[in-house]
Amino acid sequence: MKRVKHLALMLVAIMLVASLAACGGNNNAKNSTNNSKNTSGNTAATNDATKTEETAEPAEKVELSVWTLGIVDYEDLAKEYTKQHPNVTFKFQNTGDQTAHHNNLTTALSAGSGAPDIFQLEIGFMERFISAQDKFYNLNDLGAKDIQANYLDWKWKQGSSVDGSFQLGLPTDIGPTVVYYRSDLMKEAGLPVDPAGLGAALNTWDKFATVAKQYKEKTGKPFADVTDLVFNALRDQSQDEIYFSKADGKFIGDTNPQVKKAYDFTVKGIQEGWISNAMLWSPEWGQGMTDGGFAVVLGPAWMAGNIKTNAPDSTGKWSITQLPEGAGNWGGSFLTLPKEGKHSKEAYDFIQFALNKENQLGSFKSVGLMPSIPALFEDPAFTEGKDAFFGDQVTAVEYGKAAQRVKPVFYGPLHDQTDTFFKNALKNVLEKKADPAKEWDEAVKQAKKLAERS
Amino acid sequence: MAQPVLISPHAESKRPFLTEQRRSRITAYTFISPFFILFSIFGLYPIFFTIYLSFFKWDAMGPMKFVGMKNYELITSDPTFWISFSNTLIMGVMGTIPQIILALLLAVLLQSGMTRFKKTFRVLFFMPNITSIVAVTLVFSTLFGNNGMINWMLNGLGLESMAFNSGWWGVKIAISTMVMWRWTGYNAIIFLSGLQSIPTDLYEAARIDGANRRQQFTFITLPLLKPFIVFVTLISTIGALQLFTEPYVFLGQSGTGSTRQEGVTMVTYLYSEAFRNGFFGTAAATAVMLFLVTIIFSVINMLVSSRMGGDTGGRKK
C-alpha cells in the first residue's frame, strides 16, 4: 500500500516537472495588447473582386502568421484575400507597444524559432534588422523589383540595403511632416489664415522665427508647441544623412550643418519664448491644443490622429500647410518576411496585395494610413476627402505635396539613442536654463562615446 | 539538507538496486526537483550565459565575436555608467533609510495605538505594493509635472518651482518618493509581524520595573526586532540596486530620455544598452558589474549586522 502511494506521488512529481519544463521551450511572449481597433471606419474597400489572378494557388492549405503594429486594417484585407484564395488563411497578432513588438522579433530571430511569416517593421527600428540579411527573405528575389516603380522612391530606399540589391520590406504608410495650425488664432494675430497664404509667410525658417516672435509679442503666448517637434522638423530635412555617415557609418552629428541648424533654431525659440515649455505627449501638450496655448504643431501625417483625440473641442479650427524649406518624414512601416517562415511565396503574394494601390487607398480611408504610392496623390478618390476637423480642408492633398518633397535619408542603427542626447540637451536648455553651447558639447561627447561601441 | 530517515549503514553485500533507503532518497529528490530543474533552466543557465556573453560582442542576431575584456573597458570608461552607479546608490539611500524608519514607526503605532482597525490598516499599507508600478508612476508624473500639484504647493509656500523632470535633485526626489510610497507599507507589515512575535510579558515586566515608553522601545522592541530589521534592510538594499521601472517610466514619457543622466540607474543603463542600442555584450558586462556590487553590499550588510552583536537567527526565549 505504502509503496503504491510512493510510486504514485513520484509519478505525479515527475509529470509536474515535465509539464513545467515544457513551458521553457516556448518563450516568445505573446503580446496581445487589446488595441481597440478602429471599427468606425468602413472595412477595406471591397471593390475589384474580379482581379486577375497572377500567382498559382498553393495546392494545400497554408496558414500565415502575421504580427502587426498599431492601428492598421491588414486583418480585414487578409479576410478579403482568403475569400479569393481559400487555401491561404491567416493568424494575426497585434500590439501597440512598438518596443516590445520589435524586441519579440529580435528574440525569435536569435532563438531561431517563433518568428511570424509576415512582420510589420517600423522605420525607427529598420537599421537594427537591415544588416541581418540572412534572417529575412530578399523581396527582390520574389518579384519586388517589378513593383518598385509604384512606390515613393525615398520610402522604397529606406527598406533597401545601401546598394539596393537587398529589399527587406514593402512600404506600408508614410509620415510626411507638415504644419498643423490653429486658423482662429492666426486670424486674431493678424496672420494669413488660408494654407497657401500662411505657407508663403512661413516659407523659410528665418521667416518662421520672425513670425513666431511677432506672434509671441502680440498675444503673449508661444507660437510653436514643443522643442522636440521643432527640432525634428529641421533635423528631418537633412540631406542624405543625419547623425551617421551613409558611406562608413561614422558619427557625423557634430559636423552635419543641418543638425546644428536644427539645434540652434530650437535654442533660439526657447530663448525668445515662442516655444511652449510642455513636453511632447504630456497632458499639458494636449491641453495646449485645446485652449490655444500655442498656434502650431509641426508633425507628420499621423499626428492628425493625436490632435483629434487630444483636442476634440477644437473641431474646425485647425488647418494644414507646408513646412518651410522642405518636408521630412517621421514614421511609417514596412511588411517584411522573416526567413523562419516556410511560405515565402504565399506571404509575398499577400503583402503585395495588401499594399497595392486600391488597398492603400482603403487603409487611408478606414484608418488614416498615408499611402506610399504617389499615383494615389492625384487620384480623385484620394483627393476629394474633406475633413471637417480641419475646416473642410482637403488634407490628403497637403500630405501628398509634403510626401513628394521628402528626400531619402540614412539613419544608422544608433539614430534613436543618439537623438535622445540632443533632445536632452534641448530639454536642459529649456528647463534648467543651461548654456546651449555646453549642452551641445556634452551631447556630442555622449554620442561619440556610444558610437565607439559599434 | 535533511538526512533521510531510513539510513542503515550496512556493510557492502549483494543487494537489490532499489533498497528501501535508495528509494526514499529518490522520492525525496524527486519531490524537491521541480525547483532545481526550473532554477537551472531559468536561473542558473542565464546567469552563466550572461557571464559568458560579457566577453563577446553580439547584437542578438548575428554571430558572436569574442572581444575579451573590451566590454568592461567600454562601460568603465563611460561616464554615464558611473553616473548610473552613483545615482543608484544615492537614490538607494534616499529611498531606503527614511523608508525603513517610517515603516518601523508605522508598525509601532499600529501595534500599540490602534486596536480597532488593525486589519483595515494592514490592507491599506499593502495596497501600494500590489498596484501596477507603471500606473503609479504615471500618476506621480502628473503630480511632479512642471506645472503639477507638488510645484503648485511649493509655490503656495512661497518657494521656487522644482524641475522634477530634469533637475539633478528633482528627478531623484521624485523617484525616491515613488519607491518609498511603494515599499514603506510592505516593510511596515513585516515589522508588524515582528512586533507581534515579541512576548507581552517582557513589556509587563519592564513596566513593573518602571521603564517608560521610550525605554521599552529602545531596550525591548528594537533588540528583539533586530532580525527583522536586518532582513528588511537587506531586501531593500537589493531592491534599491535593481531600481528600474520608476525611472524608466518617469523619465521615458516623451519616448526619449529614460537614460537622462539625472535619473539613469544601473538597470535602465543595462536595458537601453541591450534593447535600444543592441549591444548585448556591454549590457551583459553591466549585469555582471551589478551582480558584483550587489554581493559587496550584501556582505557589508551581513558584517554590519553581525558586528552589531547578537544573532540574526532565532530569538532566545
Automatic annotation (TrEMBL), chain A:
UniProt xrefs under Gene3D superfamilies: Periplasmic binding protein-like II
Keywords in alphabetical order: Signal, Sugar transport, Transport
Keyword Transport: yes
Any Pfam family matching the protein: SBP_bac_8
Region Disordered, annotated ranges: 29-57
Domain of life: Bacteria
Claim: Oxidoreductase is one of the keywords in the record: no
Signal peptide: 1-21
Chain intervals with Low complexity compositional bias: 29-49
Official protein name in the record: Sugar transporter
